[in-house]
Design a protein that fits this description.
It contains 13 helices and 13 strands. With about 400 residues, the chain is an alpha/beta fold. β5, α9 and β6 form a beta-alpha-beta unit.
Amino acid sequence: MDVLTELRPWQETLRAQFPLITANPDVAYLDSAATSQKPQAVLDAVLTYLTTGNANAARGTYPWANRTTTRIEQARDRLRRFLDDPAPQRSGVHFVSGTTEGLRAIARDWLAPQLRDGDEIIVPFADHAANNAPWLETAELLRHQGRLSVAVRAMPYDAAHDYDIDRLAAMINVRTRLIAATHVHHVYGNDMNVHRLRAAVGPDIPICLDAAQGVGHLPLSTATTDVDFVVFSGHKAMALPGSGAIWARNQRGPTYAPGGWNGSPNTSGIISLVAALDWLDAAGLDRIARWNTALGARLTDGLRTLPNVEVLGCQSSLAADTPTQQRQGIVAFRHHLIGSNDLGFILAAHGLLVRADGHCQGDQGEKTASVRVSLHVYNTAEEVDRLLSVLAELDLD
């Protein structure tokens, strides 16, 4: 029995919990890498909080404020458990608006004060721009201040768009101060196998992980993946927009602390994030990952038969029965005869909601727009087949 058949009853139960999905049965939402849809449990948690005890955290002494403060602190512990934190007494959890803000905060508040003239950081320039810009901005700011010169070096990749571990190991030297990496690539959909990084870079160099496309899609254990920071956006993991977090191991270098004055937290967003983590754990991240990977394999297996379609990323992983690592529910492609932006409009007219643009790529990423399909647990094999059918009809026109 294949995965999609085996897990279908489970998936149908979960799909029914997404109001926007069930209210639009003729629409296939295929843009979850941009933002995920929200299950009813998350919406209920936020509404209940707002209608029974909404107050600012750490600003008042009355019961509603005290309860909110307690819930925010409990949310930190909940995230530690979700990430399988091996040393929760040492680690820190800091809530931010999303991945971009979190990475900028680490670059500005934690990394910059430690840098010295001639230091180096290694950055994945073929990944999302959010994992490029903060490090470049920090190095440029220090240069403009006349303080020092920091070399920002490019993370090496292999032919399958994975990190080239051997070449990375050869780049490491006594001036390397940070490795920035990505959990799941936002265009190619591949798990970047970051568990291999620690052996390559040694025991002392901090690793900062952009987990925006990983958290909520597949398990991530900080007990077995030795990175120093995990940063993600809640809105890609079933929570509300404007929510996200930094998890800091606080083992290498100084303890992470945000700089400046801490304003009011996004209490509704944090409440939604806790509810989302509860929902994801109950649903089972292992099964979510299996479902999304199987849908992606079904899509790539169909796309490779279309003569005018070029799938981006590793070409040896397109067949559904390939032993090569499959995409984690994210598939990007181009049509040789129809521009990607035009194709996005055509697919939307058929009720297929995809993303069609440059996908916020870094400087060494894809330069030409493409269509990105990003799947989640509320998507079905029938939706994938419908997309393939529309693309096949376009080839016949």
